[in-house]
Amino acid sequence: MKTLRTVFFCLGCLMVFLLTAAASCLLRAKHRSVPELESEYAYLYAGNLERYSFLQYNQASPEEGRAALQQYLKLLQRIKDEHISFQSVTLHRDFGLTYLRLYRLESAAGNGAAADGYMRSAQIELSALGWKEEQVSTEALKKDIETRESNEAQFYNRKMQSPAKEGKPGQSQEKSK
Length: 177
Fold this sequence. Notes:
Elements: H1 2-59, H2 62-81, H3 88-109, H4 112-128, H5 138-157, H6 173-176
């Protein structure tokens, strides 16, 4: 009987040890590993969706661009609402730039009310970055987004010129004369 009691006591201690270890692992995962993974995946997904929405905005129809930008805004809002570890500077900048792009789309479509709403949202987000009042004025932001779009257009639409201006690449100069 004494041996049986000792065996049950050892099994009980082992169960308590295993349950405590499992609970400890779960708590550490919940408060350390899971937030790190959420943050890492949020950065990866946000980066991909940012590039996708930018390309849709630049190269697709205005409706497709608008849909992609709004999808990106939803992701940013989800990151903010779920308190996923994400740099606030990056979050505010991305919100502001996306709102400015939506402002441009709505302005071009003649939807003044929606455009004004996006401009106000952009001003709020960029003010949160510490931009001065004159930097977030409507006129300054209009000029800023126009300059940005002009630079992006030059960057993405420039044509690659071959070193030999005559003939096709790989063709010798003698043959083209």
